[in-house]
Design goal:
With 77 residues, the chain is an all-alpha fold. The protein has 3 helices and no strands. It has a domain at 14-58.
């Protein structure tokens, strides 16, 4: 007997298996890239991360507002 629900479920299971395989392959690829990072020790990696933190903090800090001069006040008015 023809059962459309089971047919649909079989197709869905196949697509989910394919997606799972793709995700696993992607994670394996990321793992192989991470193994080849040029850091001798975790201390080197931590030092680099700390230097990036200070750079990001400086970049995210809002700029100080400019003081408006008399000339700027006349132009904006």
């Amino acid at each position: 007997m023809f059962d459309p629900l089971s047919l649909w479920m079989q197709g869905t299971v196949q697509w989910m298996k394919l997606i799972k395989l793709q995700q696993e392959a992607y994670l394996r690829m990321l793992g192989s890239f991470a193994e080849r990072l040029p850091h001798e020790t975790s201390r080197d990696l931590a030092r680099e991360a700390e230097s990036l933190k200070s750079t990001l903090r400086a970049a995210n800090k809002p700029a100080a507002p400019k003081k408006q001069t008399a000339k700027d006040a006349r132009v904006s008015a």
